[in-house]
Design goal:
Strand order of the largest sheet: 4-9-10-8
Number of domains: 3
CATH topology of the largest domain: Arc Repressor Mutant, subunit A
Low-confidence stretches: none
Shape: elongated
Strand content: 5-15%
Structural class: alpha+beta
CATH architecture of the largest domain: Orthogonal Bundle
Number of helices: 17
Order of helices and strands: HHHHHEHHEEHHEHEHHEEHHHEHHEE
Largest sheet: 4 strands, antiparallel
Length: about 350
């Protein structure tokens, strides 16, 4: 809903509370004047910026988390769940009920009453303004670097995998279709065939060393390197490959997919959504972080350490993965593999910069 619609849904008592909070000068007995005055104040950039600056750290974390959700309408219990998630991953100690009341008090959330249920909504224009101001603040903190200053350096290289993951997905399907691919008793491709396959890919990987303890990021993550494990699990989930007794083969769906002309953009989008779902259990804040990075930092070169420092605030160690591993390998590394960010390395100093595309 738009802000005007949300305001008109409120009774005059609730509008008076909002008018008092924003010191609106209007006739408090006229609903029309109240709505007009509050509407102006809520969408005034400096008013909103000042209100954000007055927030405590915990409430700011909750606002940031909500502003960069892919939707604006929530059930009340869903908001409480998100509040508890912020408590867990950001180390916040406040109560979600209190945060919710504070955002309603500021007119950033509205309770919309239906006959049998209530919803809580961020008005469209408020959502857009909050995103804009929060993104500006994040950019100020991470301090982007101009591209020409980086590319003037004598020794640098840029890693940009672009659509390579889609190309390698099709190389994998062709490899399976080309002949017998034997599996171990655990259902894993034999090492000799892994070497043959990985060396044929645009982005080669090495087979995992023996006795490396891995779990949590997909069905075959314990047995294959990060990038290929995602490709394999995606193909398996799409029912394009079949693990029969001792042999890996294509299904009819897989044969049909291989015969079709690939839509690279669509397949990469599907892979991205699959990655977000697959990695969300060990990294609960991942969908939020992905939305924030791709909408706020895209197009800017930023020192990698500054990005990982920001990500680390929203991460908690997961068994064998410390926070640095989660930020660098599970998030930035996988985004690089999917062509969602480029990495520039200054070969003289070893400094790295990332640009989200």
């Amino acid at each position: 809903m738009k802000l005007l619609d949300c305001l008109l849904e409120q009774d005059i008592r609730e509008l008076r509370h909002l008018a008092s909070f924003y010191h609106c000068e209007c006739n408090r007995h006229s609903k029309l004047e109240l709505v007009q005055s509050i509407h102006f104040q809520l969408l005034h950039q400096q008013t909103c910026r000042s209100a954000l600056q007055e927030l405590g750290e915990e409430l700011m974390s909750f606002v940031l988390f909500l502003a960069f959700q892919p939707k604006r309408t929530f059930a009340l219990e869903e908001l409480m769940t998100k509040g508890r998630l912020v408590q867990a991953v950001a180390g916040a100690k406040g109560k979600p009920e209190q945060w919710l009341a504070q955002l309603i008090k500021r007119g950033w959330l509205f309770v919309i009453r239906h006959a049998c249920y209530h919803q809580v909504e961020i008005p469209a224009e408020v959502h857009q303004l909050l995103r804009q101001l929060l993104a500006e603040e994040l950019l100020r903190k991470v301090q982007p670097v101009e591209e020409k200053l980086l590319t003037q350096r004598k020794e640098f290289k840029i890693r940009d995998e672009q659509q390579a993951i889609v190309e390698d997905l099709y190389r994998f399907l062709r490899f399976v279709a080309s002949g017998r691919v034997p599996l171990t008793k655990a259902g894993v491709i034999h090492k000799r065939y892994q070497l043959q396959l990985f060396n044929s890919l645009a982005i080669p990987e090495d087979p995992l060393p023996k006795q490396r303890w891995r779990f949590g990021y997909g069905r075959r993550f314990p047995f294959y390197p990060n990038r290929f494990a995602l490709i394999y699990d995606f193909c398996y989930a799409k029912d394009w490959i079949r693990e029969q007794t001792g042999v890996l083969s294509l299904t009819l769906k897989g044969e049909s997919q291989l015969a079709d002309e690939p839509d690279e953009d669509d397949l990469r989008s599907q892979l991205t959504r699959f990655w977000l779902i697959l990695y969300q259990q060990p990294i609960p804040a991942l969908p939020f972080l992905y939305e924030l990075l791709t909408t706020s930092l895209n197009g800017h070169w930023i020192e990698r350490g500054r990005v990982t420092s920001f990500l680390s605030q929203w991460l908690r160690a997961y068994y064998f993965d410390d926070v640095a591993t989660l930020a660098n390998e599970r998030i930035l590394g996988m985004m690089a593999h999917m062509g969602l960010l480029a990495i520039l390395t200054d070969e003289a100093s070893g400094e790295q910069y990332v640009k989200i595309k």
